[in-house]
Write a structure and sequence with these properties.
Elements: H1 19-29, H2 35-43, E1 47-49, E2 61-68, E3 79-86, E4 91-96, E5 102-105, E6 109-112, H3 121-132, E7 138-143, H4 144-154, E8 157-161, E9 165-166, E10 173-174, E11 178-182, H5 184-192, E12 197-200, E13 205-208, H6 213-238, H7 240-251, E14 254-257, H8 262-272, E15 283-287, E16 290-292, E17 302-304, H9 308-315, H10 357-364
Parallel strand pairs: 1-14, 2-7, 4-15
Antiparallel strand pairs: 2-3, 3-4, 5-6, 7-14, 8-11, 9-10, 9-12, 12-13, 16-17
Amino acid sequence: MPTRRRHRPVRALVFRFGVALTIAAVATASGIIALNTLIDAKLATARRVRVHTAIATNGPTNFLLLGADQAALDNLSDTMWVVRVDPNRRTALVVSFPRDLWVNVPGHGLAKINASNNGGPQLVIDTMRQDFGIPINHYVQVDYPAFKGVVDAIGTVPVYVPYPARDDVSGFYSPIAGCKQFTGYDALQYVRSRGLAYYSSTKRQWLTADAVPDIDRIARQQNFVKSLATLAARKAVHNPLTANTIADRVLKHLTVDTGLSRDDVLTLVDTFVGINPSDRKHVRFETIPSAEGPVQQGQSVLYLSNPAADAMIQSVGGTGVGANPTSATPGSSATAGGGTAPPTSAGGSGGGESVPSSSVLRASIEDAAALGPAAPVTPPCTASS
């Protein structure tokens, strides 16, 4: 039986959560108790920040979602998503930008993309516009207590853990494999994990599960968010008190741009209402294609992989990679998932089926055969949860 080791202290807690999906679920359920009044009242509790954003039109709208911890010693964000909502088609595309992408930060030169948040939200928006031509219409940042609070508000979230698992940095520990019911505390440690390890009963040792930590974490993150959004919507619809609790626990930890209005929230509602977030025809999760490359300033970094990265950037309204010098050369060994790990999704702006997170993690282990058979998947878990 694997034993738990003492964890090193963690300086910065980060939040990885699809706030757009949660707000939509909350607002949808809140139709029972005066939707417009509720949204106005809840939005009034969110912190506001003045930023220069692209003017929204009647077409698709881009929301930049960041996850951060205001109590951290720095302001680095490990979670950076562009959510493109098309209200006319009632579809949404959620694109993750790995924190280790090596990009040009305006006025600061080459650095990891998450370092742009050190200059505040405007610099992140400017980086998206300058490097990729992506117009950002609204800015949303959410602190980690909201994530834990939402999970606890709905009870628990089922997550399939194929082997005994741990991460000594994030604090995640699951000594027994199988379908686990995660509380907010468990879930936060799980989605923060960048160094997951599985226990081999045959070798009696822990084996690294993440070939490319940044990419593998995104796969876990995206699958967890889809499960969480589905549960939040289901429970909120049937219980207005739960809907109100979710709204309180999310919105009081939000920082949004001064222009975000009730109509913008309703745009999200119109897109997500009645839609299963796991349905790729309406809600799609992708990751910018990238590849590992030369170390920069003593740091392991990721480089954009073309032409797939260019196509995905264009799918969220950007102009593409363009002259950005940090992109990998065509024909490199990069995949849509980055490095040598299997892709989390197909590249480009078209279709393609997502690889379940458990498959991504299983294939990422160098000596996968040493782990033996994975734990059975039992309800309410699925192979991709």
